[in-house]
Amino acid sequence: MTTIDDLIALVPPPANPVDASGDWTQVEAGLGLELPADFKALISSYGLGQFVDFINPLTPFGSRNLLLRSAQRLLDSERPFREANPDDCPYPYYPEAGGLLEWAGTDNGDRLCWVTDGHPDTWTVVAWNPRGWYYDAHDTGAVGFLHGWLSGRLNTTVFAANTHLTAPWFEPFRELTHVNIKLTDGRRTYPERLRILQQALSPTADRGSHTRGEHHQDHFTATELGWNLTYETAYTHQIRIAFPPDDEDRARSTLLATVRRMGCDVLSTTTHRGRPVWD
Q: Is residue 209 very low, low, confident or very high in pLDDT (cuts 50, 70, 90)?
């Protein structure tokens, strides 16, 4: 059985997790449900943040109270679709008996849920894509699912396999500005462009990479700046950067100057919500 110690050995937790502690008795009273011990250990160890910039556990603590807020609106939000399409909804929803209860979400809008049937420590995980209305059941709990997916031992049909197998990470929550910089190709090769980008932001720490044919994706951190970056041609040729809001002027000047040294032109700069910036 996979334990929280196995997950910690694979993905070191932050030294000071955000919104990681509080009164579990009060949380469970608000839900009307006891929660699994492995989930409590997960939140206590990692708190608010993301695994590999993708999976977000729902901490019940702090001003956001993500777990309870998600639970309170789940049934009402899904009821109209279920009434019109009952065959596409094989599970009840919390607070119905044995209903799905979300414990984490993804950046794609997918949901990781428990089937709340039986003792909490026996609850299993269902990955759910509410956009396409399909589900994938897994005979494991929250920590077992995370460890399996992050280590590459477990895959789901709901979202892609983890590509950061050698160095999965957890990023505690910070207020960050996210900017996507779309680029022309230029004459330099991808490795040359990546080297120029990393040298401009040195020192950097690798956070995993993925290559398939001519499609590349490299994740790294500018460690002294506290900036997170992805350079890729996997979907489009772009740099994705996340930085503290107070660093915006520095990030803009640094990245635009570096792009020129890479031999590329900027096609557009947008926030992750699609709003133009840096024009």
A: confident
